[in-house]
Amino acid sequence: MTFLVTGAAGGIGRAICETLSEQGHGVLGQDIVAGERVDADLVGDLCDARFLEKLGDRLTSTEVKAVVVGHGIAGAGRLEEMCVNQARRIMTINFESVIRLWDLSQRQLEATNGTFVVVISQAGLVGEAGNALYCASKFALSGWMRGVGATTKVRLRAINPGGIRTPLLEQALHDMAKARGITYEQFVEMRYGTSPAGRIAEPAEVGDLVAIAIALKTPALVEAAITGGEVLW
Questions:
Q1: For residues 173 and 180, is the Cβ–Cβ distance under 8 A?
Q2: For residues 71 and 231, what is the distance between their CA atoms, to the nearest angstrom?
Q3: Which of left, alpha, beta for 24 (phi over 0: left; psi -120 to 50: alpha)?
Q4: Which of 10, 25, 175, 193 is placed for a possible disulfide with 76 were both Cys, Cβ 3.0 to 4.6 Å?
Q5: Do 101 and 50 touch, CB atoms closer than 8 A?
Q6: Element spanning 30, H or E
Q7: From residue 137, how far is each of 15, 52, 144 by CA, in Å?
Q8: Is 1 buried (19+), middle (13-18) or exposed (0-12) by CB count in 10 A?
């Protein structure tokens, strides 16, 4: 089987590609920048109509059976210091682009009894101080998937990781610590020191969970909040 993974140049997306490839699946990697796991002809913007048309043709020609959404951007910071343009960019990339990808792939996935997986975040389940806009974009995804889950034959899977060791998280933690007026080290200890695993999880753990989620045959929406690191819900 062949799967599409977006955000394949990032820490989590790359790990998902590696896990699925190791299991013998064909993987199409997409991202807005080039990367080791990104197909050369799938470097493009998911909010660009021309690129989406090309991506749609590729999905059809390769009979993709699952789409895994692994892209996204951070949005941490003091809300009063962030502008409307920043809010719009976060919502466009983290939420709107996922809807566009769904519209592009829904018909094919319904015809092939396929799976649509979205790596959301624990920030789509609980609010986080100093991270309001990011939470808003992820809460939007969680609500949207619950709504769509009641109307489609596609198997929907929502993955809600806690802290995963990626450059995206590192920057977000620095920004949240700054918003609270404490050091990065203090914030990391406060946030992860008492979590079940007492640590930040690794990207490969998310890759393993995505593989399990795709393999599940249940037709209902599955929401998974366990990451091997922190679980807040």
A1: no
A2: 21
A3: left
A4: 175
A5: no
A6: strand 26-30
A7: 23, 21, 11
A8: middle
What pTM value is reported for the model?
0.89
Pair of tokens at residue 142: 């969680």
Tens digits of residue pLDDT in 155-173: 999 999 888 888 877 888 8
Query: Encoding tokens for residue 26?
Result: 């064909």
Half-sphere exposure of 114 (CA within 13 A, CB side): 23
Residue type, 154: V
Residues in the chain: 233
- Write out pLDDT tens, residues 100-142: 999 999 999 999 999 999 999 988 988 888 889 999 999 999 9
User: Do residues 16 and 70 lie in contact, with contact meaning Cβ atoms separated by under 8 Å?
Assistant: yes
Question: Dihedral of CA 108/109/110/111: which sign?
Answer: positive
